[in-house]
Design a protein that fits this description.
Blueprint lengths: L7 H9 L4 H19 L6 H13 L8 H8 L4 H9 L3 H11 L2 H4 L1
Length: 108
């Protein structure tokens, strides 16, 4: 799924969906594709990353994603992109991910 191309009805359907392992993996792959677009120097603004994060927040999906995996993805992207994604997360999730980003395993 392309997080930037999703329509409002797609986000509503996703919010209502039962979140199982395959869907979590698909969401993480979509998030990785979004973040790797920035790494590959494709045209991607911090605002687009922020908006995708807000959509994930409004669909109540951040609580369902493993924070360790999200932190690992963010550790491989630019500070600007990571900040944009973190800014769009609910504060409780953001705090968990930021804590993991400071952990020795991700900063080594």
């Amino acid at each position: 799924m392309d997080l930037l191309a999703m329509r409002p009805s797609d986000w509503r359907n996703l919010a209502a969906a039962e979140i199982d392992s395959p869907l979590v993996e698909e969401l993480l792959a979509s998030l990785e594709a979004l973040l790797s677009a920035e790494v590959r120097s494709l045209t991607l603004s911090a605002e687009e990353v922020y908006l995708a994060a807000v959509e994930l927040s409004e669909a109540h999906l951040w609580d369902r994603l493993p924070k360790e995996r999200v932190a690992a993805l963010l550790s491989r992207t630019s500070v600007t992109t990571a900040k944009a994604l973190l800014d769009g997360m609910p504060s409780s999730c953001r705090d968990q991910v930021q804590s993991l980003l400071r952990a020795p395993a991700l900063t080594a």
